[in-house]
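Practice record 12: protein with adenosine-5'-triphosphate.
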Amino acid sequence: MKKLYAVIGLGRFGGSICKELSKEGKEVLAIDMDEDKVNEYKEIATHAVIADSTDELALKELGFRNIDHVIVAIGDNIHASILTTLILGEFGVRKITVKAQNNYHEKILEKIGADEVVHPERDMGRRIAHSIISSNVLDYLELSDEYSVVEIKAGEKLSDKTLIELDIRKKFGCNVVAIKRGKDINVSPMPNEQIIMNDILIIIGSDKDISRFQKALV
Ligand code: ATP
Ligand code: ATP
Ligand code: CA
């Protein structure tokens, strides 16, 4: 059986999830209470329907009980987002992903049984901040409150040295898990691997250790 997805709220965030899932050939039910938004997605989603997701009966009639994964992408209306999540939880929807507007909203969503809470503006802001601080930090992914993965472009301090010479694990407590060079990617670099200028290092570690590494070598 094909997996069924639904996206509630077709703003920029929900809309782009809907487009991407459809592009990947997935079966997507798109819901918004705004008629114009729904019309915009008629040709994109499998079904696009005008509905208020806080209306339990309406969701039931649309077959939400049989949806495998629902993405709640309601924007500023936190009340509607919470109520929708509660209703979907009661339906026994297998997976519910909800977009949070702020930390308080996020906490409530976790308490009422959202399986996954996403915070795109905050996370993207953090990623961009790290690349603003250093133009050699190409990407930044938070694994937890304490641990991250960063993508760093090798400048002068890292170039023409091996991992042993740099002694990264011992000195900074972080691990180089991969080195990208042009189109090639080496996913388990040997200790004697030599880094060359503009290589992209993918490094995993605690934020504190990564920060020490960056101060010394980036
Ligand atoms: P953006 O990414 O553009 O900032 P957003 O995801 O933050 O968008 P909005 O632009 O506010 O949020 O879009 C949320 C969408 O959710 C709107 O199109 C709105 O009509 C829809 N929406 C809000 N409440 C409900 C509801 N109860 N039922 C269905 N759709 C809703
Ligand atoms: P360790 O006791 O730190 O694991 P080791 O005795 O296993 O080191 P090697 O694996 O040969 O020795 O590596 C020597 C040093 O080179 C390591 O201590 C570490 O500082 C650095 N190093 C090697 N590979 C990596 C890597 N992938 N990421 C970060 N540092 C590395
Ligand atoms: Ca918004």
